[in-house]
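As a next step, we paired sequence with structure tokens, yielding the entry below.
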Amino acid sequence: MKKIIISFILLSLQLGQAQTAFNYPPINYGTVENNSDIEKLKKDISSGKVQLSYDKDFGYLKSVLKALNIPQKSQSLVFSRTSFQRELISAKTPRALYFNENTYIGWIPNSTVLEIMSNDPKLGATFYTLEQKELEKPIIVRNDHDCLDCHSSSRTQSVPGGMIKSRFIKATGSLESNVVNHRTPLEKRWGSWYVTGVSSKNPHLGNLRYAQEELDNTEITDLAPLFDVSPYLEKSSDIVALMVMEHQIHMTNLITRVGYRSRIALHKEGLDEYDNENISESGLSEIQRQVTPTVDYLLFVDEAKLNGAVTGNTNYTKTFEASGLQDSKKRSLKEFDLKTRMFKYPLSYMIYSENFKSLPLISRELILKGLQAVLTGKNKDKKYAHLTNKMKSDIHEILIDTHRAYRRLNEE
């Protein structure tokens, strides 16, 4: 018992130290100006530029989604009690999550607050609550302190970030719990999540509310037999939206980590983040250690293979693809494959994100050079064997057309 108490104290100290460290230069997590989409919305509400509408059933949910351009069809439903509102969550009243590339909204029936996680381009995830109370100017409150206890650990790459967890109670009574991203085999995903759509020959843990439940969960398009769906905006928890969210959250955390470690390395040597020439060899080596795993994840190294077609049951797939930046041949990094892998062109669309654009110059250039070496065939490491020559050529051409910094690199 003494060992357990000591371990808990040590963990609490580590988490507290991590949060404190974020607030020192060069990160200044809690004091620097925050440029997340939710901070912009707060300013627009304060100035009267945006007025949120209150709904008797959903509070401000619909209005917030509209203001932030977050699609309703991104709805994913989770019933693990991993929120600070755990007492409201159950298999009968799952928490609904809605997201776009920058912001994630959590909503639970009968809750008094909306949960919000919004990414600042440099700081990573920042956390808020919005009280579900009708006011002329609704109040959005930053709530980092409580959230960072879970959202700044090794599970989030040791930076403020999100995470998707699969939690499943086995027949033996033991808990299977793991953090999920696009490398996780589907059979280990979505414990304590509802999942709608078709996953053909890809069994998973979704929709199973207890270990002994016998349920063919590879083709569920109607959740009504499992719980009352009427209180929710959508009647779905689209499998494709889940896959996108899993990829995106981990990708964002990796980019945030590169930014943090790069800024710290530069700061130690008295350099600013636009200096890419004067850093020492040891500083450069530290940054490169963060760059390599980021390049690998961008290129879907070790992506879990699909054993058959995966199909969502809403228009989320179509809407997501339509939002992709296209090259002159109408190709986009947001085009899905969903037969043997996730995307047709295995390079993350998050290469266009504000988080990536806001990286220190040296780490951004190292990532782009790393991509260039793989895509042009200079880097022949076996871990990139999943990329055919045609894929490499296509991705390279797409980036030349659509990514200004990558195009400049290839013009040098």
User: Anything to note?
Assistant: Residues 29-152 form one domain.
